[in-house]
Amino acid sequence: MIPGLTTRRRFSDLTEQEILALAISSEEDDARIYRSYAERLRAEYPASAAVFDGMAAEEDTHRQLLIDLHRTRFGEVIPLIRREHVAGHYARKPIWLTANLPLATIRAEAAAMESEAHNFYTRAAQSTSDAATRKLLGDLAAAEAGHEARAGELEATHLDPEARETEDAADRRQFILTWVQPGLAGLMDGSVSTLAPIFATAFATQDTWTTFLVGAAASVGAGISMGFTEAAHDDGVLSGRGSPWKRGLASGVMTAVGGLGHALPYLIPEFWTATTIAMIVVFVELWAIAWIQNRFMETPFLRAALQVVLGGALVFAAGALIGGG
């Protein structure tokens, strides 16, 4: 038997008191999660924080209704039972895993929470024979199903179109500063800076395995260097560019990817086949960089393409000339 599962109970084995206790603890957890979201968003997205404050208050109301029912039917002592005690029951992600989620993802997480809660109350209502309990659980199921509409009402109160537009723009800007900009810098560095050593080695030796080793070493080394440089040079506090480790990861990984793209073809033993494919990969990489600049950095496409393709062509030519000489 798998360790850790022996203490978990099936939902169908719970008593009505335990189902109520599970509902109470679930409402407490969800209220805490919504308040954590609100605190996480308050500084940058105050309107969305107000929405989650309102949703937390709704969960508090549900919890109090459930406690009142438990007091009437079973007394003051509520059994300690939580989601993780029930086999197959839905579970919430630890709040520390969601602390740095973007705004749109947090909104989607909240919608998923309400859907899961609705399914729970529907199932719980079907498992009780007491009329008052069944009615309350059914009402709570309807309330959770209606939370999407309630969230819409809260958003209409606290999150007018202008506030939403402002918050969405701030969220997109943060995404660009934290992920796109460092990743783009890494991709440009990895794609362009490794052209010279890879193609110089290729034309000098015409040995595909040696070329691959040089390319892999240059790409991985550049990725490590760029990643640590990005993470170390700015902690993001004053610049507002976000977590240094996220930026370092984006920069380091994309630097390595940019170089490995045209190093991997040299795993092909035939020299000119490998070189032709590597040149095609370089062309694709450079146009991808131009597209990203146009899509996220709002650089005119023709200007971005000219800058990237011209720079890449000059570095490639330098490598080919040095290797061919």
Q: Describe it for me?
A:
The chain is mainly alpha-helical and 325 residues long. The chain folds into 2 domains: 9-159, Ferritin, core subunit, four-helix bundle (Ferritin, Up-down Bundle), CATH 1.20.1260.10; 165-324, no CATH class. The protein is built from 11 helices and 2 strands. Strands 1-2 form a two-stranded parallel ribbon. The longest helix has 33 residues, at 161-193. It is elongated and about 90 Å long. The chain starts with 8 loop residues before the first strand and ends with a helix.
Give keywords:
11 helices; 2 strands; disordered N terminus; mainly alpha; 325 residues; Ferritin; elongated
Q: Which strand order do you get reading across the main beta sheet? A: 1-2
Determine the structural class based on helices, strands and strand pairing.
mainly alpha
Helix content: over 70%
C-alpha end-to-end distance: 68 Å
Describe the structure concisely for a colleague.
With 325 residues, the chain is mainly α. It contains eleven helices and two strands; from the N terminus they run βααβααααααααα.
